[in-house]
Amino acid sequence: MTAYQRPRAGDPAEVGTPPTFEVTVDGQPVTAQAGQTVAAVLMANGHDTWRTTRIHNRPRGVFCGIGACQDCLVTLNNTADTRACQRTITPGDTITTQPLTLLPTPGTTTPGTTTSAGAGSQDPVGAGVREVVVVGAGPAGVAAALAAADGGAEVLLVDNGRAVGGQYNRQLPEEFAARRPDRLQHEWKAFAAQRDRLLGHPRIAYLPETSIWALEGLRLWAQTGPADAPGRQPFAIDAKAVVLATGAYDRVLPFPGWDLPGVYTAGAAQALAKGQRIAVGHRVLVAGTGPFLLPVAESLLGVGAQVLALLEANTLKTVRAGWSTDVLVAPSKLREAAGYGALLARHRVPLRHGWTVLAAHGSDHVEAATIARLDENWRPLRGTERQVDVDAICLGFGFTANLELAVSARCALGTGPDGGPAVSVDANQQTTTAGHFAAGELTGIGGAALSAAEGAVAGAAAARHARSAAQPPLRTTLDPAVAKGRRFAAALAKAYPVRDGWKTWSTAETLVCRCEEVTRGELEAAADDRGLQDGRAMKLSSRAGLGLCQGRVCSRTVAALLAGPGDLPKPSMKRPIAVPVRLRDLAAAEVAQPAVTAEPAGTAESAETMEEQ
Amino acid sequence: MHRSATPDVVVVGAGMVGAACAEALSAAGVRVLVIDRDGPAAGTTSAGEGNVLVSDKEPGPELELAVASRAEWDVVRDRLSARVADVEWEAKGGVVVATGDPEPLTAFAAKQREAGVDARVITRAEVFELEPLLTPRVTIGVHYPDDAQVQPVLAATAFLTAVRERGGEVRSGVTALGIRQSRGRVVGVETSDGDIACGAVLNACGPWSGAFSAAAGARIEVLPRRGMILVTAPLPECVRHKVYDADYVGAVGSGDAELQTSTVVESTRAGTVLIGSSRERIGFDETIRVRVLRELARKAVGLFPFLGDVQVMRAYGGFRPYAPDHLPVIGEDPRVHGLWHATGHEGAGIGLAPATGRLITEQFLGLVPHLDPAPFRVDRPAVVAA
């Protein structure tokens, strides 16, 4: 056990005294605080892991921390496969760390679970067509909702989280009663003002804790309520225009030991620290590439962790050359970096360029890391390896856009500045599918400012589309803020590229797919023995990407490892069911949606489909 | 450009049926080149459940083909080299259950027994011994010990590996555009990668066979039918056989365009439970339909109530090729000498592939076929459009 809750005393956020109550972990009573996630309860009470993998019995706990990877699944109130990082604890919850063989038997579900969890989830939006539905309440989604509403449209904003802000402006739970939440956020005032305007806007309805699990044309299928709880009745939301602002998740590259408990994504460390006041360890290494690692280190320091070093894989030469490709963006970025540099210096955290973690060591938990110097192409320089004692490693090699809804909407994909897949949009943030707009990281990784700028454009264009589809599009040229943001994104990708040398960090025994526990050797054998390239057949014969996370963590890695020299890897982002739905709830999908209202949208969809054939 | 000598047969389509035909032909010494516009097992083969069933067919030519193919699966698997021989073959048997009037199911089983199928009527209590988690509404069951399951992508790619080991060739990313003829017989195939000279062309394009046959100037009527399957999160052992509702039997032979679903529930070696399958005649439309997923979910929970709390992790689907008279099309085209077809297996292509490969090989070499090929001949009125 290494993770711990930051003591309230001395917390710069001045966390209050939230109500506490009792829950059980494997039958033992444990005290939980209102507002904590199930993962935070476990981590604050000495559990870093709470399940083992199906094939090799490896221990697992939080990895991505933002609901994408499915590593942290736990049995809650007798319901298996609940994401501990996404689920908020409630009084009397029973947490069971999942045993390897749990044969579900009829009648073991807690009586009343279905009705209690389902309370309030009966089609909370009511019948009728919404003018603009915005999916995701991060910087892009918030800006889109405000712009659409300001443009006169009735807006529905749906988001997985319990509060607006997304990953970037993650807030402490209200129950924590923090007096100085501003101390955990840059530009807090601007965010708080925007948040308050959004929540008070007469034309914006906001639906938190709502996941969109499928998209049928302009019909969104939603579930509202506690994450992964059974009994959240699916309901349909019909829209005239949709703005997808589904964001991105951390990209992690494989090396020996990267699946050991104690290895987290940088985003997980950030979410746990900023959102739950949990430190992932006492002696922490932050490694990867990109400026996002700086605020992660800052958040870790804020919860009292010792950050041993921040290892930036790119050399200083690469970073400088990248930023200097654009004279417009360089000065502001250098100022920001200087600020972080001062903070790191104050805490005596060395920032090393051209270094990374090459291996994590330990039996059940990380105990040490091998770090090494890299050349410009990320190949380790022989003789520079050093072993460091650590109890946590946080990794972030850029981000991967969350594209499944955009793919379901049949939006054409292109390549973002970082080489990853991204939704193609025009000057109005209009995708190739009529009525579907996209904003933020899913159109190309570019940070919060670009996301907000794109959101504002998308929201305005969506409102105009919804209110009068016949009108010509709002913009014929790029919005200046978007244009500036894109220049920043392009320079960012040049300053912090992911270089091919990472492919030398793993061995034949290194896991590539965490869910199905597929090693690199097995993946390559499937390619060699069966003559397969990346794609569905490859997935089915190697099983990489077929597990619970559906390739969110590994699909880019797999595509890159299998791509021939010069080939652009094109990982599949097709997931018709965007987040898991329990079978009984799926079976109940029609109850909240009378057939009468289902017909018009169904007809529209058929027409659209025929057009595309 | 082409290193190997002129192939005797170019197989168009590297799916299960094309792979099985190429495997059987190469095992008989025929020089084979397999081409696919995508790659091995990239189409229908990677979108199915891997059914090798004798239980779902009424007595008739298709059942005869199914019984022959079930036996042929053992033969072909024995020919595979060790490194690719694991195709997740499981002779797990099938259990068909009725939740209402037992009479139609027992009558159906009696007819199958007359046709030589091992179909054992079992009591309600015996059903629960085989499948403890079934709904208590079950009234009667039929146990089919010969039903089996295979992982179709592993099987098809293993067959293609065997082809390569015997000197054949498999080329991905090559689209067949038409055939070249000389005096009424095939002399080559036109592809996106240039012309390839050959003695014969085998159309194994699955749902796209109709399109290729038209491009080859000898159109056959083969249409797509869409099927969707739900996949649950991995579970401990819970469903031991292929379990299906008796109404499955009715859906297979139907020509109704509207949505049909019937429950087929089974575990895979990966721990997931597959829930199939739906049947829709909607062309090559790939859009998701929540209505279809809901019907599958509803029937699965009806059959296995414990599945209600289980997460559906993903849904996938694909297109099954069918001829208007719902029989496979296997044999030489009567209009163009040297053009062969092996297609139209609908949802049963995985199970029927080995016998299809053997039948094609026997006919190609002029051997005595191991079963009567006449019902599957190409020049049926339903297949060869006027």
TrEMBL record, chain A:
It comes from the Bacteria. This is Thioredoxin reductase. Residues 511-563 form the BFD-like [2Fe-2S]-binding domain. The keyword Oxidoreductase applies. Keywords: Oxidoreductase. Residues 592-601 have a biased composition (Low complexity). The keyword Oxidoreductase applies. Gene3D superfamilies: 2Fe-2S iron-sulphur cluster binding domain, sarcosine oxidase, alpha subunit, N-terminal domain, BFD-like [2Fe-2S]-binding domain, FAD/NAD(P)-binding domain. Residues 131-445 form the FAD/NAD(P)-binding domain. Residues 96-123, 592-613 are annotated as: Disordered. InterPro entries: 2Fe-2S-bd_N, 2Fe-2S_ferredoxin-like_sf, BFD-like_2Fe2S-bd_dom, BFD-like_2Fe2S-bd_dom_sf, FAD/NAD-bd_sf, FAD/NAD-binding_dom, Metab_Enz_Cyan_OpOx_G3PDH.
Automatic annotation (TrEMBL), chain B:
It comes from the Bacteria. Pfam families: DAO. InterPro entries: FAD-dep_OxRdtase, FAD/NAD-bd_sf. Keywords: Oxidoreductase. Residues 8-362 form the FAD dependent oxidoreductase domain. The keyword Acetylation does not apply. This is FAD-dependent oxidoreductase. It comes from Kribbella karoonensis.
